[in-house]
Amino acid sequence: MNPTIELLTSHRSIRKFKDQAIPRALFEQLIRAGQAAATSNHVQAYTIIHVVNPQNRQKIAELAGGQPYIASCSDFLVFCADMKRATEAAERAGADVARGMTEQLLVASIDTALMAQNVVVAAESEGLGICYIGGIRNNPQDVSELLNLPAHVYPVFGLCLGYPDQAPEVKPRLPLDAILKEDSYDDSRDQALVDNFDSEMRQYYQARTGSNKETTWSEQLKPLFTSKLRPHMKDFLNQRGFGVK
């Protein structure tokens, strides 16, 4: 493997950080690397809120379900899907713009995710650790008010950045045959592949350093389809001006 592929395949989420600040010059380089990501029609439909105020970081940690590393990492970012800037620019250029289209929600969300992943890869290449925080969607309205987000902007996820103070094992991924299909969607082997993967994940959770537990991949999915459904997101996105047409 070349160094880039090796870096990508060694990713771990970091939840314990050293009390060491990321130099500002490096921090800005990471954001510029994020901006270099692919973007639909060059819209660049994202805005990043760098949350510096300690009280705000602590509040977000609580709103996200009690995740203390939001407050303890060197830098915490909230990545926002932003159609406000581009829509207003098109309007000033003379367009009779349509707001609230579902495609705009998709474009902005995808742009934001691509941009964030570029930041993550750049950060890890510099020896930094990261942790995505989807929990800010537990209370997206409160987060939006705290960060003064206008209409047509919504918080997609947060990101902790800092120097790692732990070295967790790399978490296994599904086998390639489960996610790579040839010509059409063939799931004839998926159950067997998932069963094998569940066995692998059980061994991983039993053997990993810290937070050992008796579970599988399938068992871990349950909250995603029960407690983490976040039914409030539909109304929230409609109120933000996304995905209503």
Automatic annotation (TrEMBL):
Keywords: Flavoprotein, FMN, NADP, Oxidoreductase. This is Oxygen-insensitive NADPH nitroreductase. Residues 9-163 form the Nitroreductase domain. Belongs to the flavin oxidoreductase frp family. InterPro entries: Flavin_OxRdtase_Frp (IPR016446), Nitroreductase (IPR029479), Nitroreductase-like (IPR000415). Transmembrane segments: none annotated. The gene is nfsA. The lineage of its organism: Bacteria, Pseudomonadati, Pseudomonadota, Gammaproteobacteria, Pseudomonadales. One of its GO terms (molecular function) is FMN reductase (NADPH) activity. Its EC number is 1.5.1.38. The keyword Oxidoreductase applies.
